[in-house]
Amino acid sequence: MKQSIGAKPLAFPTPAWVVGTYDMNGKPNGMTAAWGGICCSNPPCISVSLRKATYSYAGIMENRAFTVSIPSEAYVKQADYFGITSGRDEDKFEATCLTPVRSELVPAPYVGEFPVILECKLLHNFEIGLHTLFVGEILDIKADESVLDEKGNPDIEKIRPVIYNPGSRDYYGIGCNLGKAFSIGKDC
């Protein structure tokens, strides 16, 4: 029997993304966000939700753009740091010894050491309540050659992205391959 646990911001999996912006003075900033995902296929878009109180919120609104840097498991500590400190008070890139790289497509930085980057122009923003939902059109995805498969696509087992569990507030890695999507269910 299922037990009710109430209405909570809980879904699985949730990413641990670092959303990159520039502040009003052009200083690179990033914050870890877990409320995000793909929201459209054509045009390719992602959504990410931030609170107005965050320093990154103003950067996205000002520049109408953001990046998403997807950390590998090797950078879980740095990704967490980007989420527990404010760019108002610290240079997070300097503190973590990570490299801010200026996007050539949008006015936003990304984390040079992270294996996959999404460069997005802001299409929409919707105030939902405590959070504002930002919809960004993906203009380009950059990936380290070392994480690409033989067809040139990012390989999740090579990327080893960080996943966040909002219930326990823990980070996890990925599990094993369970089967081919749009195929494994044909045998039911």
From TrEMBL:
Keywords: Flavoprotein. SUPFAM superfamilies: FMN-binding split barrel. The keyword Kinase does not apply. InterPro entries: Flavin_Rdtase-like_dom (IPR002563), Flavoredoxin (IPR052174), Split_barrel_FMN-bd (IPR012349). Pfam families: Flavin_Reduct (PF01613). Residues 10-164 form the Flavin reductase like domain. The keyword Flavoprotein applies. SMART domains: Flavin_Reduct (SM00903). One of its GO terms (molecular function) is FMN binding. Its cofactor is FMN. Belongs to the flavoredoxin family. This is Flavoredoxin Flr.
